[in-house]
Design a protein that fits this description.
Length: 244
C-alpha cells in the first residue's frame, strides 16, 4: 500500500500540486469582501462590525441580501474546489489503488486548500474569514452522510442559541467524530455495510483532514471563544433597513 501511494504521488505530483493551487486560489475569492465592496461603495467588511470577512458579519453590517449571496458563493467555491481535486486525482494512474478512493483524497486535499485560501486569501492581504461555510461545502462533496448529520445539528444549535459561533464550534467537533464513525464502521469494516471496504489508510486520511478542519475552525474562533466565556458574544441579527 505504501509503495503504491508513493508511486501515485511520483507519477502525478503535478496534478496534485495543480489541484492544490487552483483550490487555494478559489478559496482566496472571499465573497464577503467582494460583495460588500460592490454593494456598499467600496467598504471593507473587515473594517465593519466584528471585523470578520464572513457571512455573519455581512448579515449584521451590510444586510440579508449580501449575506445570502456570500454564503451561497462561498459554499459553491468549496464545492468547485473539491470537484477540481477529484477530477485532477482521477487523471493520475492509480495502479492497484482504487480510483474512487484516490478521488476522495483529491476532494479532501483540494477542499482543505480552499479553506486555507478563504482564511488567508492571496487577493486580500491574507486576511479572510473563518472557513466554516467552505468547510461545510467540503463535507457535502467528500461525504454527504457526514454533511447530513453535522449541518442539521449546526442549524438547530444556531436556531436555539441565536449564536453562530456556538453552532460552528459544535459542528467542528462533530465533523471528525462523525467522519471517523462512517469511514471506519461503514466503509472500512466489510461485515457491516459493504463487500468492498476501503483501506485503513482511507480511514486515517479522511479522519486526519476532518480533524485538521476542526482545529482550523477552533483557532479562527479564538476571539469568539473568549467572548463566549465572558458572556459578550453577540447573537445573530440582521442589519435593519435605513428609514428614508
Amino acid at each position: 500500500m505504501g509503495s503504491d501511494i508513493l508511486s501515485f504521488i511520483a507519477s502525478g505530483w503535478y496534478y496534485i500540486l495543480g489541484a492544490m493551487v487552483i483550490a487555494y486560489l478559489l478559496g482566496s475569492l472571499n465573497f464577503s469582501i467582494v460583495i460588500t465592496k460592490l454593494v456598499d461603495n467600496g467598504a471593507d467588511i473587515r473594517k465593519m462590525g466584528s471585523g470578520n470577512a464572513g457571512f455573519t458579519n455581512v448579515l449584521r453590517s451590510v444586510g440579508k441580501g449580501p449575506a445570502v449571496a456570500t454564503i451561497v458563493l462561498d459554499f459553491l467555491k468549496g464545492i468547485a474546489a473539491a470537484l477540481v481535486g477529484a477530477f485532477f486525482f482521477s487523471m493520475i494512474p492509480s495502479g492497484n489503488l482504487p480510483v474512487a478512493e484516490m478521488m476522495c483524497y483529491g476532494k479532501y486535499i483540494a477542499g482543505f486548500c480552499c479553506i486555507l485560501g478563504h482564511i488567508f486569501p492571496l487577493f486580500f492581504g491574507f486576511r479572510g474569514g473563518k472557513g466554516v461555510v467552505t468547510a461545510a461545502a467540503l463535507a457535502a462533496v467528500a461525504d454527504w452522510r457526514v454533511f447530513a448529520i453535522v449541518i442539521p445539528v449546526f442549524i438547530v444549535v444556531v436556531l436555539i442559541t441565536k449564536i453562530v459561533s456556538i453552532g460552528s464550534l459544535i459542528a467542528a467537533v462533530l465533523y471528525p467524530v462523525v467522519t471517523v464513525s462512517f469511514s471506519f464502521f461503514a466503509d472500512y469494516l466489510p461485515s457491516l455495510t459493504t463487500k468492498t471496504p476501503h483501506s485503513v489508510f482511507y480511514v486515517i486520511v479522511t479522519t486526519a483532514f476532518a480533524l485538521a478542519v476542526c482545529i482550523c475552525i477552533f483557532v479562527m474562533h479564538k476571539e469568539n471563544i473568549k467572548r463566549l466565556r465572558n458572556g459578550t458574544e453577540k447573537k445573530l441579527t440582521a442589519k435593519k433597513k435605513e428609514q428614508p
